[in-house]
Amino acid sequence: MPGASQADSLTTTKTNNYGVPSGLIDMPTAEMAPDSEFSLTVSHFPGYTKSTATFQILPWLSGSFRYSGIDGLSPAFRIYYDRSFDVRIRLLEETDYLPAVAVGLQDFLGTGVLSGEYIVATKQINNRLRVTGGIGWGRLGSYNSFASWRNRQPFTFAGVGTGGNFRFSDYFSGRMAFFGGLTYDITDKISVSAEYSSDAYEFEERQTANPAAAISFNHKSPWNFGLTYRAAEGVDVRLFSLAGSEIGASVSLSLNVKKPATASLEQAPLPVGLRDPGAFKDLGWTLDKNAQAKSVRDFSTLLAQEQIELIGLDITERSAHALIENNIYIADAQALGRTFRVLSRTMPASIETFHITVSRNGMPLSTTTFRRSDLERLENAPARDALAAAVITDSLRFGDVPAPLPGYYPKLEWKIAPFARTYTFDPDQPFRADVRLRARADWHLGKGWIVTGASSVKLFGNLDHVTRPSNSIMPHVRSNAALYNPEAGPTIDQLTIAKYSRHGPNLYSRVTAGYLEMMYAGVSGEVLWKPVDSRLAFGAEVNFVHPRDYDQLFGLRSRQTPGGVIPQWNGHVSAYYDFQNGFDATVHAGRYLAGDWGATLEVARSFSNGWRFGAFATKTNVSAATFGEGSFDKGIFFSVPLTWLVGQPTRQTYSDTIRPLQRDGGQRLNVEGRLYDVVNDAHRPSVAESWGKFWR
């Protein structure tokens, strides 16, 4: 059924007007989306539009970000745009006799115009009917309230202040009211819903009575009704009546990021080459240079067909050691599996031990050892058996890493591709974008030395229409980003020279100098301590920067801004921890671009197919009043693997960060190639987590 794929855990792919998992219209339920489900919902009735992104973080936890546009809600704006976050936690799963129970916070980190809290229970009956009942506070306790718990001030624009802060004293306080409803699946594509709403839309009605406000809303009834049609897999369309006076519609698009969106077009891997019994005793090839050259040539040819880059190769009587770079497969485990199979098909039969060292940016990161007889024995066994037979060590502890092949350096890589540059949440126009064409070249001069240049030109877009000036009283380190956007180009997006190095087991370093990003030039240095088998890592970074001219060519501009002088020094110490099962957390603490001191917490969930979702928050020694609207820096970030879209193997992703508001506090330098991102994928915890792709 469209909304009930797993009755025992009460999941749904439907969303309500607030874009959260629910079969009802405005009210929440205790339903959850399937684990790792991502949805985008747009809901509209005259004068009111909500756009919501929701991610099912865990089977029992979901999070949402919403951007709402309300006509004339505030006399100061023709359309009042509001940003809000939700979180919902399932406390109890449904059983044969008991309903599922969930608790939720709606708009708990915004202005509060949509804020409300709830405890709700939902029970499924006969696989088609779901019944919900709950108690709400805030907006959800405003109609036909039966009690009140502590004082809660009603929403007013005067009480918003800078917004964006937690309102702990308000949660589950004020008036309380009952709500409820039911959903019935008529067919697998059509369902109906009815609800008794506890939201009186009080603020909207008060503004309707205000002659200076343009909104028109009349709450006639607590009863809402909806009809939902599943137009296609992951596409739901709903028509609804609201408050006895409004007719609206919503569209919801959902996908599960664990699943591929297209059929994989990557070529099948080669089978393991099996040796004839007793052939391992034949060492005649060691005296035949032609036989040796043929093995190397065959290995190089087949590995190139797997799109894996060979850097170096050493062969002895009983072992072969390949130095590779994986630029194509998201999971290094897949590149390892394919390389081992190529070794088994091309190396002389006497060679029993295979070693593969994975290198990135000229640094050997890890060496995986596999006995050839285990490879032959385990080809059709579960991947976990192969993992148990593999030995993964730090390449510097292993020693004797193959030298680069003659003529490997210098190496030039280049590409020309379009990309999008976005500007979001401008009150004058919520979304603007430019599509630009970028040419990029990476010149690998030698081991660890990389010169990178990137230049782009505008193809089309409307970023040049952004005219809102920064009102920040801090040094304008990011809030004047709009001044960089009008340039059609060609612009110098990046022009750097970087040196990556190993200084012993567990130790890595990076130094990058030049035009580091769109807004800053300078020098960035970093060190990282990361054992190959550890889930914990520590790093430190120091940057010396100067702001670039707005035309993004070779010039630099003054560090003096209306909010103060931009400091030249900034940097952080960082701690990284991999919780496994795709979850990781990072803490950065230090000095930010505007000179403020504080810390950033990032929490993310990653998937072996390249998808990644996360959230971050930064608190510094800057007060909310000094920071400005939003109170502190926070947001969500994501990465979409291009291979998920096109079906062809590639490590390229589209990544972006969504902030409710771009301010100057808590801002870091956007330097490319930070060490943890370069190193972590090749270490044992990450390789083990994606080991299911070893035989792919």
Uncertain stretches:
1-8
| Overall number of strands | 33
For the record, the count of structural domains works out to 3
Distance from first to last alpha carbon: 33 Å
The number of helical segments is 10
Q: In terms of structural class, how would the helical and strand content be classed?
A: mainly beta
**What's the gyration radius in Å?**
29 Å
Strand order of the largest sheet: 19-20-21-22-23-24-25-28-29-30-31-32-33
Major β-sheet annotation: 13 strands, antiparallel
The CATH topology of the largest domain: Porin
Strand content: 35-45%
How confident overall, as mean pLDDT? 91
CATH class membership of the largest domain: Mainly Beta
Q: What is the CATH architecture assignment of the largest domain? A: Beta Barrel
Overall, the morphology is: globular
> Helix content range of the residues, please?
10-25%
Descriptive overview:
This protein has 696 residues and is mainly β. It has 3 domains: 250 residues, monomeric porin ompg (Porin, Beta Barrel); 130 residues, GMP Synthetase, Chain A, domain 3, CATH 3.30.300; 275 residues, Beta Barrel (Porin), CATH 2.40.160. Helices cover 11% and strands 44% of the residues. The chain is built from 10 helices and 33 strands. A 13-stranded antiparallel β-sheet has the order 19-20-21-22-23-24-25-28-29-30-31-32-33. Strand 19 and strand 20 form a beta hairpin. Helix 2 runs antiparallel to helix 3. The longest helix has 17 residues. The protein starts with 36 loop residues before the first strand and ends in a 7-residue tail after the last helix. The N terminus is likely disordered.
